[in-house]
Each structure stands twice: as C-alpha cells, then as structure tokens.
Amino acid sequence: MTLKKLYGAAGKILAVTTMTLIISLMFVQGAGACRYKTLFAFTGWNDGNEPLGSLIFDQSGALYGTAYGGGDYGHGVIFKLTPNGDGTWTQSVLHSFDFPDGDKPSAALIFDASGKLYGTTLIGGWDEGGVFQFTPNLDGSWSETMWYDHPANGYNPSSSLTLDAAGNLYGTTKVGMWWYPGGDCAYPGCGGVFELIRNPDGSWSDKGLLAFGGGEDGKWPVANLIFDAAGNLYSTASAGGTYGQGLVFELMPNPDGTWTKKVLHSFHGKDGSAPSAGLIFDEKGNLYGTTPKGGAYGGGTVFKLTLGSDGIWRAQVLHSFAADGADGVAPYSSLVRDQKGNFYGTTSGGGTEGYGTVFKLKHKKGGWTETVVHSFKNFPGADPYAGLTLDAAGNLYGTTSGSDWGDCRYHNGPCGSVFEITP
Predict the structure, then answer these.
(1) Is the pLDDT of residue 175 over 80?
(2) What pLDDT is stored for residue 8 in this prediction?
C-alpha cells in the first residue's frame, strides 16, 4: 500500500536555541570512582522538555536526540549537542514539531548511510503518529519528509526504527493492525510490526508484516527490532503470552515476502514481566534484555536467553532488582555492552534518592554482579527512561526525563537533561 500522506518541508529547521550548562559532580560507588557531568539541562520551553529516547552520535562526535514536549509549538523537538573545545557542549534545536508534522517524539533517532535522520512520533498528523525523515542540506539546514499510514497497518509508534541492508525501515506499533483473524484484539487492535519499503524512484511503500492477536500470541509491542546475521528480526511484546506477562518473539522472512512469527519465551513473573525494551546479542548469539516488572522482588529484571541444541530458547535471570529499590527499580530501557562484556542500563526509579540509577552488570565466576554506577538526585536530572550510548572510549551518555511534578516550567522542577558518565 502506498503511503497516503506526505509532507515535505524543505529548509524548515528552526535552529533557535543555544544553551550551554555544565554541572560536574564527583561520586564514588563501592571501590571505584566515576565522573558524572550534566551536558545540558532542558528549560522546558523552546529547547524541549522530557527527553525519553536514547542518543546517537554522528561522525563528528555530536549527539542527536528527541524531546517529547517543548519546542516552538509545544509538540516536541529534535535536538543536537555539539562538543566545544573546552569540554562544554552547545545545544541547538534542529526542528520543532507543530502537530501536523508530528507530536510527542519519544524514541531514539537513527542515521542511514547517506546521513539522513529517521524517527517516529507517537501522535500528530492524523493523530495516529508517523515516521519522519530529515535530509541534511548543503547550507546546514534540514528538509523534513513525514509519512502517515492508515491505522490498519498500525499507529502510535513509540519505538526507534531499524534499517536493513537495502535501506528499508522496520518498526513496531502498540495499537492498530486490527485485521488479525481472531484473538482478543478487535478494533483498535493489539499492534504489530511494519515495514517501510524504499522504492527505486525514491518514494516509499508501507506494509504490515505482523499483527498481534492477543492472548498467547502476544500484544502491545513497544520496543525496537534487531536483526541477526540471517535476516531474522527479534523484539518483545509487553503483554500476552502463555502467562499474560509479555514475551520475546522472532520474525523469519519467507521466500514469498511473508514473515513467520515464533514465540521464543513467555514471561511468567518471576523471570520478569511487561518487557518494554529491545534486545541485544552477544558474540555467541545469546539475547539480553530487561523487564520493568516482575523478578524475585517485583522491581524488574535483567534476563538472558540462550538457544539450546534442541532449538529451544531458555531464560536465565541475571539480576532481580531489590524490593526496596536501593539498586534501582523499573528498567524500561535496552542494555549496552562494553568491550569487556559488561552490561550497562538505567532504571527509571529507585537508587539512594528514588529518582533512578545507572547500573552495571559484570560477569564473575559463579554469576553476575550488579553495582550502581550513579543514583540520580532529582536536580538537574531525574527518572531516566532511555537507554545509554557508549562512545569509543567507554564513556556513557544518556537522558533523564525530569521528575513527575506536573509541568516543569511552572513548578521549578527538572525538565530533563543529557548527561555523561566517565568510568
């Protein structure tokens, strides 16, 4: 099906906000020392409000991300952080969404090989969200193209996109795709997986690859997809499955262009519940992820899935977050893995102050050990929902959303931040 609505807005970039704020904090966790630095604190106005997605680097070392609200029209922004020679960073707004071209971007951006940016907005346009493309121009501005689809192929996308080798885009939607035959997902549907196909003439076509049917089939996927070397896709559904607490699935392409879904694992509570983040592979093909609920104490888990010689995937809980939240609670984000095989992630709550943590999982003989790298203290950042980004030197970068105090602009509360942690 050809996409039904296309918005082009050449040169519409509003590079308006430039602000630099450095707050350096030194802290010690256990026997090691790390340096925590706030690179930028959002005011909630034109520069954005409540960043919920992870960050990405360009080739020059600049960071790019999205903020859920704020901007010139109050519907969110795309921002860039440029490193200065003195260790500070400068923030600029590349685009302010105005609702017809999208609203509430909540996921990370991705680059293609030509330097174009792609992302999703949760709502806007036809009020069902969409996918956008930003193309860099020679004068430093960016041109926007926006796609909206009929809700039969999904709407309200909340995850980042995935590119294949041919430049096609893949993503998930939490609702829509009600054409599934049977199950407990009548209108508006339980969501699914879609593909945006790049045509030779430069246009795009959309295709619904999978509609979740609820029940044991799963429902409400909100995480990004990842490919394996064979071209299969993997992700999570936040509900449904055998025990109704979410699942991990694989999509395998068929020669006729269809895809076959296989449930790799259904969560049952003690091993996690309501998975909301994407997965990552290690070099052996094992899958790792997080759940914000469940586990031994109900505060969420970090899990591992291993494929056995019998073709069955088996789950192992690497860490259950403590009942008192001291080591964090409710991890909503994907993990990152450093060159030594250590995993890092964030929890949206818990820690010494109750505003979330950055944690590390290290494999030692006999099991995995979790340590808190940083506990957030509300100001200038609190409640990290996004995953972390590693640079080549092993430094960690992330965002905080700001604590839930209502509108931060009028309550002197944090409106979100970008931070760096140097191990």
Answers:
(1) yes
(2) 32
Contact 35, 24 (CB under 8 A): yes
Rounded Cα distance between 129 and 152, Å, is: 13
Q: pLDDT tens digits, residue range 380-405? A: 889 999 999 999 999 999 999 997 66
Mean pLDDT of 182-193: 75
Tell me the two tokens of residue 160: 């980042």
In the block, residue with structure tokens 């559904």: 237
Closest CA to 123 of 145, 146, 141: 146
CB atoms within 10 A of CB 378: 17
Residue 242 zone, left/alpha/beta (φ > 0; ψ -120 to 50; rest): alpha
**CB contact set of 255 (below 8 Å; sequence gap of 6+):** none
Domains of the chain, residue spans = 225-320
For the chain, first and last CA: distance in Å? 49
CB 356 within 8 A of CB 419: no
pLDDT value, residue 172: 95
Cβ atoms of 64 and 109 within 8 Å: the answer is yes
Q: Exposed (0-12), middle (13-18) or buried (19+): which is 122, by Cβ within 10 Å?
A: buried
- Integer Cα distance of 149 and 283 in angstroms: 37
Residues 193, 127: Cα–Cα separation, whole Å: 19
Contact between 320 and 267 (Cβ < 8 Å): no
What's this model's pTM, rounded to 2 decimal places? 0.90
Retrieve residue 134's tokens. Answer: 């930003």
Q: What is 278-302 written as a DSSP string?
A: --EE-TTS-EEEEESBBSSSSB-EE
Report the chain's C-alpha Rg in angstroms.
21
| The one-letter amino acid at 397 | Y
Q: Is the pLDDT of residue 364 over 50?
A: yes
Grouping H, G, I as helix, E, B as strand and the rest as coil, residue 59 is: coil
Residue 269 three-state SS: strand
Counting residues of the chain whose pLDDT is more than 90, the rounded percentage is 71
Question: What is d(CA 21, CA 42) in angstroms, rounded to the nearest whole number?
Answer: 9
Tokens of 352: 């010494």
What is the pLDDT averaged over residues 340-348? 97
Q: Quick one: tokens of 367?
A: 């099991």
Question: CA dihedral in degrees (80, 83, 89, 94; nearest 10)?
Answer: -20
Q: Is 233's pLDDT higher than 60? A: yes
- Supply angle C-alpha 80, 83, 84, rounded to 5: 130
Nearest CA to 172 out of 122, 99, 100, 232 is that of: 122
Q: Cα–chain-centroid distance for residue 185?
A: 25
Which residues does residue 240 pair with via DSSP β-bridges, in sequence order?
245
